[in-house]
Amino acid sequence: MSSTTHARNRSGAPAMAIECGRRGQTQAVICYGPPGRGGRSVGAPLREFTEEFPMLHTLLVGLGRSGRELHLPVLRRLRQSDREAGAGALFAPASPLGYDIAPLSDGTSVPGLLTVPSPEAARTHLDPDTTVVHVCTPPTERVEVIAAFAELGFRRYLVEKPIGTGAATVDALRDLRDRYGLRLAVVAPWLHSGLTERLERIVTSRGLGGLRRITIHQRKPRLRRSLATPSHPTAFDVELPHSVGVALRLAGAAQVERASWTDARTDTTVIPRMGTAELTLRHHGGAVSRIATDLASPLRERSIVLDFEAGTAVGHYPVSGEDPYAHLRIAPTGRPERHEVFPDEALDACLHQVYRRFAEGADFTDDFELQARVVDVLERAKHRAATADPADPANSTAGTADGSTAATTATGEEHRHVA
To answer: Sign of the CA dihedral 113, 119, 123, 125?
Structure first.
């Protein structure tokens, strides 16, 4: 039995792909030229070849909120869609495997996930050649985790943002990548967002003239998580990896012009550097970006405003999975506005595209280097914020030497939490 799908050949030209059959975990494909007028017949064969796309297994490392509440539900949806699509499955039918450095308490289980007690145990269940390792640990633990699994032969990694909290971590990951021949992808849903794609088209088309300014606001209530799980040293490490990546994608390389942070406070507790963070970037092309985040806000917002020479574009990313719709309002100077509302499940799109590229053997070097530039910008911002913060011990609170944070009660007693 064969099935027909529209495709593109490697030059990007439209083609018709005929799936000739499946052998184990691979599929044979013949590509033909563009269909005839009306799509009634296929064109002449462009190339006959066999593409071996392995069905990929999943190993989740880190079973906190990111792994358990974000990655796992998305993987369930993608696997279900994959099964319904039939031929050409990308995801292996087996349930994902899970491992956490901190063992789950007795009697605790994660529905739809088989957990193992060690990396070695994971290796006995999975073939490294057909496994994607999701690294969902805190950013201070990424290097050690990837090194341990690389020693066991795993080569494909999907790393949660940010890839590190500073240049030293990025350099260590780059060294591991080159030493073991790893392919390192980074979770970057905003860069896979339909809203970001539409904004990028507006920028590159210059339909509203040149880009002058980007303004991004990210607000969400995060006090409970900041108190309970000190996995991020500063507010710069939580939401800004998303927005800085978008700013660099839309406006190019930039220098840090200003940066500041504040503590998160309740009536009884202070969490250093985990309240607000603000950053101003001056891009080499002339545009200016101002990015602000508030992790102690009672409101949720993920908005972006692009000011052009001849108009404005205002976008709102979905703030949760409960209503995954993005909004975009385009206001050309002197012309009617246009309002667009569309589904934008960016994390689903991100994971699906990463798996597809893993299966195709794609090179992730450019993606990694963009995320390395994001980390560099944030490291410079944290240094500038620390230098300007008179209340900062030793005038540098971009994180303690061990990557820990501290929460201080109103009586002055410090509660130190080590990631």
So the answer is: negative
Q: Quick: pLDDT tens for 102-122.
A: 776 655 677 889 999 999 999
Query: Looking at the 3D structure of the chain, how many domains does it have?
Result: 3
Output the pLDDT for position 351.
97
pLDDT in tens, 343-395: 999 999 999 999 999 999 999 999 999 999 999 999 999 999 998 766 555 44
* Cα–Cα distance measured from residue 265 to residue 98, given in angstroms and rounded to the nearest whole number: 35
Alpha carbon separation from 350 to 77, 89, 161, 186 (Å, rounded): 13, 17, 12, 9
Task: Give the pLDDT band (50/70/90) at residue 165.
Answer: confident
Using alpha carbons, list the distances in angstroms from residue 315 to 54, 153, 188, 286, 414.
38, 43, 18, 22, 41
| Lookup: tokens for 269 | 């507790």
Sheet hosting strand 156-159, strand order edge to edge: 114-115, 97-99, 57-61, 131-135, 156-159, 183-186
With b for 16 or more beta-carbon neighbours within 10 A and e for fewer, the 65-102 pattern comes to: ebbbebbbebbeebbeebeeeeebbbbbeebbbbbbee
Question: 13-44 burial string, b = 16+ CB within 10 Å, else e?
Answer: eebbbbbeeeeeeebbbbbbbbbeeeeeebee
Considering the domain architecture, whether residues 251 and 394 belong to the same structural domain is answered as yes
Residue at which a domain ends, from 134, 151, 186: 186
Euclidean distance between CA atoms 236 and 69, whole angstroms: 22
Q: Which regions of 172-253 does DSSP assign to beta strands (E)?
A: 183-186, 211-221
CA atoms within 13 A on the CB side of 145: 25
Using alpha carbons, select from 242, 249, 244 the residue that is nearest to residue 346: 242
The helix or strand, by DSSP H or E, that contains position 380, with its residue range, turns out to be helix 365-387
Q: What phi, psi does 258 have (nearest 5°)?
A: -145, 150
Are residue 244 and residue 272 in the same domain, yes or no?
A: yes
Residue 356 within a domain: no
Distance of CA 49 to the CA centre of its chain: 33
- The whole-angstrom separation of Cα 338 and Cα 43 is 39
Q: Of all helices (H) and strands (E), which one includes residue 59?
A: strand 57-61
Provide the whole-model pTM: 0.79
Using the 3D structure, point to which of 186, 208, 238 is the last residue of a domain.
Answer: 186
328 contacts 195 by C-beta, under 8 angstroms: yes
